[in-house]
UniProtKB/TrEMBL annotation:
Annotated coiled-coil segments of the chain: none
Domain of life: Bacteria
Domain Thiolase C-terminal: 267-374
Pfam families given in the database record: Thiolase_C_1 (PF22691)
Name of the protein in its database record: Thiolase C-terminal domain-containing protein
Entry-linked PANTHER family: ACETYL-COA C-ACETYLTRANSFERASE (PTHR42870), NON-SPECIFIC LIPID-TRANSFER PROTEIN-LIKE 2 (PTHR42870:SF1)
Annotated organism of origin: Bradyrhizobium iriomotense
InterPro entries per the UniProt record, alphabetical: Thiolase (IPR002155), Thiolase-like (IPR016039), Thiolase_C_2 (IPR055140)
Matching SUPFAM superfamilies: Thiolase-like
């Protein structure tokens, strides 16, 4: 690894990881869910709403609202504001921007929050209006939505590298085992590899347990400088490094790697750690094949070795490679843009030692990734962050 040329995140910390427990359907608005998350941030941090002077928000179901509308609605007066529409990459992008804002003293306490509702018809409407380019590419063939597009990616990846459904199924089964220890996970029953393999096809090779379940919920955290956290008496995680990349490897006919692969050396160099140093890993898991792709692109094994990596490791909370310890979106649920935050928020709890029943013993160093904005042949946005528990 080479030394990073980027300005380090010295003095930047992340505090008060918040989850508003998910529900399958909700008659409330996305704004209601986001408001609950903001209220929980204030309560957990022991601050006043007026202490928040930065806001970053992500949501698919706020309609025409953006962060600016929420400031008045929730009585916030901020001097730094952003709305990030990057789907599964939103949490990493929000963390990166908020970190630089507090580092430059453009804000002192930034609330990063994502939330979505799920009315009975919300998901269909979201898919219908997701991407004009996607519609133009796939609608003439009678396809639509993420499942069909990811099926093409999954089929090509599995064929290229000799990956079987059983290989990717191990990821989903391990995450379900983790979810059974998470009281907020929506999936409450065990999942065996036999049940995974026997599940009905959705868009082959995507079957039922490869798909995340749409739901409603919210996630959030605070970004601030270490002296601010100390003055508030808050335990906080230290931000060590991040990467972000969009429309990577555009010449690949079909996606077999994401933007992480372009910048993975920078991710570890900036943090001054190696992949083997990590205690917990939280990947963005809209489909298990994308998680396998990340095991390769994030440096845990070489390209094409993801299936063998999964065969050789125990991905459960008590295993040798604790991964998606909350159960991930595959078993907790995907609350829209909040799903982008799920892994990062869980990872923060892990290194802070506050994960409760999903806690990994002696977890000090974590990685969380993001992936989003699928067009017809690839996800366009990717990112990752490495963070550590408080210094002793």
């Amino acid at each position: 690894m080479t030394n990073s040329k980027r300005t380090p995140y010295d003095g930047v910390v992340i505090a008060a990881p918040v989850t508003i427990p998910y529900v399958r359907y909700s008659i409330e608005s996305a704004q209601w869910w986001i408001g609950r998350a903001l209220s929980a941030l204030v309560a957990q941090a022991g601050i006043k709403a007026s202490d928040i002077d930065g806001l970053c928000v992500s949501s698919f179901t706020m309609g025409t609202d953006s962060g600016i509308g929420l400031t008045q609605h929730f009585g916030l007066c901020v001097r730094w504001l952003d709305t990030i529409p990057l789907g599964g990459a939103s949490a990493i992008a929000a963390l990166r921007k908020a970190a630089r804002a507090v580092q430059a003293h453009d804000a002192d306490i930034v609330a990063c929050v994502a939330g979505d509702t799920n009315h009975v018809d919300s998901f269909r409407l979201t898919l219908e209006n997701f991407s004009r380019f996607n519609q133009d590419a796939v609608y003439p063939y009678g396809a639509g939505g993420a499942n069909a597009s990811f099926a093409l990616i999954a089929r090509n990846y599995m064929r290229t590298f000799g990956v079987t459904r059983e290989d990717v199924g191990r990821i989903a089964v391990a995450q379900r085992a983790n979810a059974l220890r998470n009281p907020h996970a929506l999936m409450k029953t065990p999942l065996t590899i036999e049940q995974y393999l026997a599940a009905r096809p959705i868009s082959d090779p995507i079957h039922l347990f490869d798909c995340v379940m749409p739901c409603a919920g919210a996630e959030a955290f605070l970004v601030m400088r270490d002296e601010t956290a100390a003055s508030l008496g808050l335990r906080a995680a230290r931000l060590l490094s991040t990467i972000e990349r969009h429309n990577a490897f555009a010449d690949d006919p079909m996606q077999v790697r994401g933007g992480w692969a372009m910048d993975v050396g920078e991710l570890y160099a900036m943090a001054g750690v190696k992949p083997d140093d990590l205690d917990i890993v939280q990947t963005y898991d809209d489909y298990p094949v994308i998680t396998m792709m990340q095991f390769e692109d994030l440096g845990f094994c070489n390209k094409g070795e993801g299936a063998e990596f999964v065969r050789q490791h125990d991905l459960t909370i008590d295993g040798d490679f604790p991964h998606n310890t909350s159960g991930g979106q595959l078993s907790v649920g995907q609350a829209g843009a909040a799903g982008a935050y799920l892994g990062l928020v869980e990872g923060l709890r892990q290194v802070l030692g506050t994960a409760g029943p999903t806690q990994v013993k002696n977890a000090k160093l974590g990685l969380a990734s993001g992936f989003g904005m699928i067009n017809y042949d690839r996800g366009l946005a990717s990112g990752a962050a490495i963070f550590a528990g408080p210094s002793r």
